[in-house]
Amino acid sequence: MRDSRPQSIEKLFDETQSSGSLQQIQQRAVALNKLNKAVRALLPSQLHPWVRVANYRQGILVLEVANASWMMRLRYEQPALLSALRAQIIPSLTAIDISINPSLAGKAARVEQENRTPGSSGQKNMGCQLSSDSAAALRSVAERSPEKLKKILERLASLAGESGASKTSRDE
């Protein structure tokens, strides 16, 4: 059972004690991060953004995946991963538990999008650019729309001028 009584902040930050709470948490986080890197090295590259180590306790490695389809893909790799981890890193590993974490899907999708965008080298992806014809069509629809929608459509149409101007200034 955990000790849930209030503790002194000095005790949490005390580096002289080997049982300092924050020090234990940091060591655990570093160990899980190293384990995550080892697991990624053993998995096929297409699984890397969609899988991460969540925990390791009592001989069971807990992996998180983005969705059910990646879970099925990882299950095909599970026996080979289990034997490789036992042989190379964790001899006491008894099982691998896989769970779905939907928040991982958003992070992985952003990473994959950045990797696919040519010339993205750390720059923010501006997305699709609106043509002047599309902007004119949006302004036309905005004229016949309710006030709230009209403002939104006009703001969207104004983006065509900004992206077109920045594009021409770069091309010159």
UniProtKB/TrEMBL annotation:
InterPro entries: DciA-like (IPR007922). Residues 116-132 have a biased composition (Polar residues). It comes from the Bacteria. Residues 109-132 are annotated as: Disordered. This is DUF721 domain-containing protein.
